[in-house]
């Protein structure tokens, strides 16, 4: 863990989560997963409240993603290509995300949180291609909910072993992305089945 993160938490606490994650999603260098895991550990140690830590992380993430969406929507690709280097949006990162977005579309906004280097640019691309805000928000905010809850939760559950969890995740991030996608798909299918069942019952009652 970076000593700077520990020092920031000593001085600013919850504000580190909110501002740090907000800035990360504007593509500035900030260790989001490390910060949330450490915040979870601090809640395990009784220094922070887990729910407040999660709320700050979620707020910073969603506001940051929303800002990038509107930058992409208003400024478009020429702006990103010209000024992206100042936000650490390298040409290779832009090209990779562009290809993935063409292939996976809005689903990439959801799973992109778990893919290193991708979550920083999906908001921009959603805005650039003109994805409806409601559609973007549905994928972006639900993905943020799972991402923040997972990392803060893991830090709280594993406590002093949180750094070992971080190293494992860094080496297996693609597997984590697949697992989260499978769970999200299962939840979506169950929800769809429940809604379909309710609709059928309403149709039967109305006959």
UniProtKB/TrEMBL annotation:
Top-level taxon of the source organism: Bacteria
Keywords: Membrane, Transmembrane, Transmembrane helix
TM region positions: 50-72, 136-154, 174-195
Family annotation (InterPro entries): DedA_domain, VTT_dom
Pfam families listed in its UniProt record: VTT_dom
VTT domain location: 30-156
Family: Belongs to the DedA family.
Protein name: DedA family protein
Organism expressing this protein natively: Cohnella cellulosilytica
Lineage: Bacteria, Bacillati, Bacillota, Bacilli, Bacillales
